[in-house]
Amino acid sequence: MPKLFYLNEIIKFAIEKEKESIELYKKLGDQATVEEVEDLFHTLMLEEEKHEKFYTKLSEIAQKEQSPGVKEDAEYDAYMQELISASRSVPPLSLEKLSSIKTALDYAADREKDSIVFYTGLKDYLPTHEKEKIDVVIKEEAKHLAKLLLLKKRL
């Protein structure tokens, strides 16, 4: 039987991912040589800081047990377990590997896509009154993705 995650474990992972995104966007913004790219990465960094605060607040109210009414979903649980395990075992990305603005934008877009998938699944673990809040974050992540892809297309 697959491991079922506690809500606070998933939220802790979300906080880790937001912190990584904040650091990534800060570094990418600092290295950017095109003002429009620098501005976008700075904006994304600030928005990810808001997400981190949201998840930190959510973790304060999360209990050590599954939310009532969460149905078992072996496929999603396996996905979550693998995602968290794999993510924690990967060394931090070396920015030197992002050899161009377009490579950096692609990498950032992939992170946003992963966030959308992750947070969409997280909704199943949340109490009903918190699901609307996570929808706001998911929409913001989708906007981040769109901004990154539009900028890449313009460059």
Query: What amount of the residues lies in strands?
Result: under 5%
CATH-wise, what's the superfamily?
Ferritin, core subunit, four-helix bundle
Tell me how many strands there are.
0
Low-confidence stretches: 64-69
Percent in helix: over 70%
Structural class: mainly alpha
How many angstroms separate the termini?
A: 48 Å
- Largest sheet report: none
Q: Sketch the topology as an H/E string, one letter per element.
A: HHHHH
Label the CATH architecture: Up-down Bundle
User: Roughly how many Å is the radius of gyration?
Assistant: 16 Å
The level 1 CATH classification is: Mainly Alpha
Number of helix segments? 5
- Indicate the mean pLDDT: 80
Total discrete domains:
1
CATH fold descriptor: Ferritin
What form results from the Cα inertia axes? globular
Give a summary of the structure in a few sentences.
The protein is mostly helical and 155 residues long. The chain has one domain: Ferritin, core subunit, four-helix bundle (Ferritin, Up-down Bundle). Helix content is 75%, strand content 0%.
